[in-house]
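Researcher: Let's continue the batch. This sequence belongs to prephenate dehydrogenase, and it's 311 residues. Same format as the previous ones, please.
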Amino acid sequence: MSVIYTRVALIGLGLIAGSMAHAMRRAGLAGEITGYARSADTRAVAREIGLCDRITDTVAEAVAGADLVVLCVPVGAMGAVAEEIAPHLAPGATVTDVGSVKRDVITQVGPHIPAGVHFVPGHPLAGTEHSGPRSGFAELFDNRYVLLTPEPGTDADAIARLRALWEGCGAKVEEMDADHHDLVLAVTSHTPHLIAYTMVGVADDLRRVTDSEVIKYSAAGFRDFTRIAASDPTMWRDVFLTNKDATLEILGRFTEELFALQRAIRTGDGDHLHAYFTRTRAIRRGIIEAGQDTDAPDFGRVQRKRETPAT
Ligand code: NAP
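Model: Same format as before. Here are the structure tokens for prephenate dehydrogenase:
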């Protein structure tokens, strides 16, 4: 693989930025990788582990001369960071981001992008419940999707180059409208996370009564919930605050279905329950047939320990 960008600046040095640095190095995609994080502690760790070629103490130094700048901070911080980097962006550079919500990021970041600089928002559907500069690894994006959500009229070459970078990092790349992205992710990731948070909260209340039986006897389903519910609180607070409409829409539908199942249980309507579970089982089969998961027992847990659902 050959160099795609001469200098890539990573702003925010956590799981996603770290994994990008490792993946870009693995394939030799960047001439130089610079990095900046707001806290001195994070910068010190990044230097200690050699995360980038250069860790700078100011955002201006990181961005200077970069032909790609990647915003890797929580969604709620994207606008402020974009404002900070704007005066230092090189003409012709591309700015992208990795935020889990797209319309809000476009609204926050778009107005700060100077003329002559391209903005191509993106979202890698890959993650773990770990965060910080030590948590990244080169394989995170292998065979995972990256969704790019450029606004109509965005420079085609800038999009093609970013696509090539992500493909070089091992990912499959697709383009999508930002609003559609937010609705899809509300269904596949954001609402499921909220349900996991709720379930773990409920179990925590119960644990006080049953003296840790919930943990002792937790089967795979609940263990998966606890792993998801261990995800970064700042990141997930921002996801729900910025993907409000789509999440509330899906949560509304979820609640209606839950009430219907609750009523079926109360009234002993086995036909309703059986028909519902038959439909959901068919959905699972469809996911396996589409190659999006394995049919190994226990979701292939042994082989795929580091992965979590896309965020
Ligand atoms: P992370 O490991 O927690 O790292 C976040 C980085 O952002 C840190 O370097 C932190 O700096 C910086 N940061 C936090 N708040 C900030 C603020 N207010 N202003 C400036 N910088 C700030 O996060 P991550 O998991 O890599 O997530 C980064 C982005 O990727 C988020 O937008 C998230 O939605 C998206 N994403 C995450 C996942 C996932 O599973 N984790 C998956 C796909 C996309 P300090 O260390 O100096 O505090």
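Researcher: Any comment?
Model: The radius of gyration is 21 Å.
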